[in-house]
Amino acid sequence: MTAPVRYELIIGDGFAMDFRRLMAAAGRKPGGPEDYVRQQVLREMEELAAGTTDGRHALGYESGKGDLRDCVTAYLRSDPQQKADYRLVFREMPPAEAGGIPRRELLAVKPRQGSGNIYEHTCARLHRNLHDRQPGLNAFGDRMPSLKQNQAQRQAELDANRAIAHAFSGQVPLATSRRLATSGFGHHRANSPPRQDHSLDR
Asked: What is the pTM (predicted TM-score) of this model?
C-alpha cells in the first residue's frame, strides 16, 4: 500500500475570516456548536495536508448556485448527533514550482444552508457569477450537483478531477491566498490555529 501524498495548504482572506469568526464564537461559548465545528476544521485541515482525506465529493454547476466544477466539499457537523450542516470547500492545485508538492486551496467554511450560504460565498470569492458557466472548467466535465454516488464512485471522481486540476494551467490560486505552514499540525493546542504565513488570527 502506497503512502498518502502530502499537500501544501494555501488559504485566502475569505477562509481566514471564516475561521476567525468560528474562533471568536467558540471563545464565547466553549463546548458549543461553533467550538465543535472549529475542532473539526482543524482536524480536516490536518488530514487534507497529510493526504489522508480527499474531501467528501466533487462539486458541479447549477444555475443560480454557480459553477464550482473545480471544487471539492468536505462535510462538518455542529452537533455530533445530527447531520452535517457545515461545509469546507477547497480546490486542488498543482505544485507552485517544479519538484514541489501539490497544493490544496481552502476557500470557505460556512453553514451549508441559509442566506449567503457557503456556495454563494465561494463563487463570490472566485469572482464567478451564480448563473454563468466557466468555459475554462469544461475540462472537469459536467457533473450534476444532485448526482447520487456511493463512496467508490465519489472517490473515483475525486481522483479524476484531482489529476485534471494538477495538469490544468488555468488552476491558479487567488491573489490573496498564502501558504499555510503545516509543521504544527497534530501538535497545536485545542484552542490555537496552526501556524501560518497568512495569519488566521489577525
From this structure: 0.86
